[in-house]
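Collaborator request, handled under Task 6.
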Amino acid sequence: MRLVMVQKILGLLLMVFSLTMIPPMVVSIWTSDHTLMPFIYGFLITFGIGAGIWFPVRNSKALLRVRDGFLIVVLFWTVLGMCGGTPFMFAEDPHMHFTDAVFESISGMTTTGATVLTHIEKTKEHSGLSNSILYYRQQLQWWGGMGIIVLAVAILPLLGIGGMQLYKAETPGPMKDAKLTPRIKDTAKALWYIYLGITFACAFGYWTAGMTWFDAIGHSFATVANGGFSTHDASMGYFNSPAIEWVSIFFMVVCGANFALHYVAIRSGSIKVFWKDPEFKAYIFILLGVSTAIAIVLIALSDNSAHDNVIDVIRTSIFHTVSIGTTAGFATENFAAWPLFVPVLLMCVGFIAGCSGSTAGGIKTIRALLLYKQGKREILRVIHPNAQIPVKLGEKSVQERVIDAVWGFFAIYVIMFVLMMLALLATKVKVVTDGAVGYVPMDLETSFSAVAACVNNVGPGLGKVAVNFANLSPLAKWILTFAMLLGRLEVFPLLVIITPAFWRR
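Structure tokens returned to the collaborator:
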């Protein structure tokens, strides 16, 4: 373990991240919203901590190992979440305590979109958030979407520090084409160029469909990152625009797919690469199948006259399936109030629908596909015990080591999910009845959906977290903050550093 190099890189990364406080400063000055100082404080604190960590070891040189990469990634996301919350703590509105500020910051950076804020837009009854704070929340998602570590991978080689170890730590699991170019620096740059291009296209699409430039840019950040924060309390429902919803659907689907496929498609000049990929095909079939099932249920069971128009029902079903399936978390209606089959199905699709190498969270389609194929193989082995039955993706056999890793991931994922759900059940939730504030034990629906929403980086849940997470206890928020980090880092990097074997020489 080269702790000196870990310290050096962590300091550099924090100094780089401090620069992300500058765009909200520009927004504050441009709109005269009087929220400049919180970002100045945030910049100075983040840059100061980074410089303080980096300066004592600035001349150290050594090659990174994979274990060093894991530690850097986990430390960076943890410290980043705390520093990213500083503007929320120093702002007058919202003036958030440490727990809420860290929760909101990590929710943005992990592209979860779960919020503890209420009344974010200006109304007659509420002052709302300033434009710079609204912009900052959207920007947090955008930086987290691709992973600021990948950006660092493109920069660190220029400083004489290799980045492959960081890249491996940031993208664990059965990811295809993890190294698209001979040099990891070029791979990171290629992915960022694609990410930037899609962001610009999405913002232009939103603006063309009727959003203001401010809303278009903010929602493009959230859409491309599959984050879910919005500049309005009603999320996408605020716009009440089918055109905006279709633009959102298209870009959520695009960004829920493997970015390596986008790179190969651009390089080859053909979109056939998508239809040759088993994971992408399964991803599309899942979204289409779930959308169809939800549309049928809404038409058959709903008493709401808003669901009488078949075209609107189809669009609404597709929008919410894609939004939850890609873990974006946007909404045009309160889907938690729909027939119970629908929100439960949506929560289930949030576990599996996003592709590996995308900005989506969850288990990922490729793991779900391999689990299904392995289960199918075990059934066949019961019938034919001596048969040699390979697990295939397309025409290629999958190595047994990959199958074992997927099963290991799934087992740990389930265990951690259950433990976090049980921990939440031991907490209380604030409720307001006829103006009186009280606290009641966490119910199963809220606990299950809160953990699912956070560990899958989806955002909205059911029950008492259907709208926001403001009424949860501080302990519950820290549990869910851990869940968001666990999901964003895909379990292993966060858990591996707490095992004794990791620290042995």
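The cover message to the collaborator said: "The beta strands are 392-393, 396-397, 428-433, 436-441. The CA atoms of residues 150 and 167 lie 6 Å apart. Please let us know whether this matches your experimental observations."
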